[in-house]
Request: fold
Amino acid sequence: MERLDMLRARIEKFNEDRNWDQFHSPANLAKSISIEANELLECFQWNEEDYNIENVKEELADVINYCLQMANKLNVDVIDIVNKKMDKSEKKYPVEKAKGVSTKYNKL
Reply:
């Protein structure tokens, strides 16, 4: 079993053991992802260079945890959906136009 599958199974068991799946609708998980992403952003609120890496790792883990739960709930393969999105992004942002610039794809 690959590491990502083992992690997904661990998260699933954690929730099953506590009977929390009942609270994990796609909408609730999307809200939780947003909330945790804002807590991650808060780590950099007043200083972008002098931040607590342990706090950053904890908040990042929360975001990833909820993202994996949402993927499980929607029965989607994380590797597959990220690869499909990367395929689209590579077309939107060709290297020869996008390299070294932060311009949105429709303005390249």
The two ends are 42 Å apart (CA to CA). The longest helix spans residues 53-74. The domain at 3-76 is CATH 1.10.287.1080 (Helix Hairpins). The chain has two domains: 3-76, 78-108.
